[in-house]
Amino acid sequence: MKSGCVSAEVKKQRSIELPVLKTSPAQKSDIRKSKASRWRAAVLIVLTLLMIAHVVQWWLMGRTVSPIEPSETMYTLQRGAINAGFIFFALAIMATLIFGRFVCGWGCHIVAIQDFCAWILKKIGLTPKPFRSRLLVYVPLIAALYMFAWPTVLRAFTKPENEPLIPAFTNHLVTSSFWETFPTVAVAIPFLFICGFMTVYFLGSKGFCTYACPYGGFFSLADKLAPGKIRVTDACNQCGHCTATCTSNVLVHAEVKQYGMVVDPGCMKCMDCISVCPNDALYFGFGKPTIAVPKANAGKKSYSLTWPEEIAGAVVFLVSFLAVWDAYQLVPMLMALGWATITTFLALRTWRLLRARELSFYGFNLKSSGRMRKAGWGFLSFAIVWIGLNAHSGWVRYHEYQGEGAFQKLQIPDELALAQANPDSWLSPSDRQNVIEGKDHFQTASHFGLFVNSAALSKLAWFDYLSGDAEQSVQLLAQVARHQQGQARALSLYYRGTILNRLRRYEQARTNLDEALSERPDLILAREEKGESLWQLGRRDEAISVWSDAVQRNAGLVLANNQLAGAAASLGRSAEALVYEKQADQFTPDNPLYHWMLALRLENLGMNELAEKHFQRAIQLDPGLQSRRQR
User: What topology is assigned to 555-631 in CATH?
Assistant: First the structure.
């Protein structure tokens, strides 16, 4: 057996015979070479070069057209951001409704990678064999609905009453943050290997398209409505050349015999079948769409799995996907889908390997007469390592999920916790319990994880701070910042600078806050904290300048206006102080804890008179705070 992974049990299930495969090797070579494949390869190469040019142009100029990637449509649905990806996806769907699913075959870089991998495998004598599943074919559609329909459904139930269902549209056709929504190069390389080579090797040509690609889920639906199809004339003699050549794993000869056209939505209109037909019996034309064709006389398909295996496979897929998706904040959804399909294949084939008496895979004899061969032990070892990595990822993800749950249950406001060096006295019993549990889960995930999850580590740093270990929190936030960039890095540096201020390490705090502002100049909170660092260092004119800049950016800043009022009062400028104080009072909420937070921050700066005002206002709003003031 030269391809696939087949047992005697499965061989008996096959019902569709392919005439061309019964011929001799000499006759097989008589299949014409597809001229269409050369044209398609050229188009895909040009597409790849254009993608590279797009990235280079952004790298050189700093701005370019936003990514022409269908996933960008999510931001249109969630935020109303009209981008190039949304326009491309909308046009591609409309074109598919007319011409059928040709965009995938002629305009997708993932298809190009899969075709290239299949070509390499054939060069070394391995013809990718399709893995056929009844249930997993629905994964792309489910993933597509999650990506593109679920955000709108969720918004319908969670949006405020006065907001529209679809956000107001804004122009995002040009961007300077081209790579913001893409994984790093270190992730892109294994992504391409897994979703390209590995899915082809284990699942057959276009394996990723068939069982993982969410865009294909919508293209498949649109194809059912399209009048454009591969159709057949009376010249067809069922030679099977078309099916033998098809890289989309479509049973072309069977479908044209049954329906007079190809109805399988997996057909990507590569045109190879038309090109190789010895009688020129196939052509692309317009007529009835798939949805109008009766299915009463449909032929029975052959599948790779029994129904119990299908159900078990669906469970394995779901568990595997949840275990690896966003693992360490690295694995994107598409990569997780590809990974889960491979895990499913390996798990089911391992089960069959352990139970069957005979099993082969790509010409390798895995098991013979009930005895495991060397190739079988190799396959089994690889499967165990792969599934073991999947299980380990799931275990780490479980602890991160539990830690995240504890983090979300915290009730203490960040501003109040950061107003003093040790916030323990403000923690409720439930907060203390959540801190203990969350810290334990995140520490477990951090100690045993294979990579650094900066998001989980930053939450662990917060748990450390709330539990009174500010030094450990500062160390973790430094580690977190080294693995982040952009807005996330700015926030980590802000929190680190703030905690350093409470520890009275003002010069270090200022350095971190400057770095945060270099990443994100609009981070007003960092400006307020930087002013505090400068004030405590005796650089009062600079502190006043920083606070003034913050107020100019946002006149309603309560803390910054209070800080300016206190600074003016300390310099004897009473009238100016009164102006800032009134400005602050306009926007100060009548919340006792908010007033207490302001009082603590102003007390740290030595602005005691103004601090006392807010302490008294807090006690007036909540007399229970009087006991805290007396401590």
Answer: 1.25.40
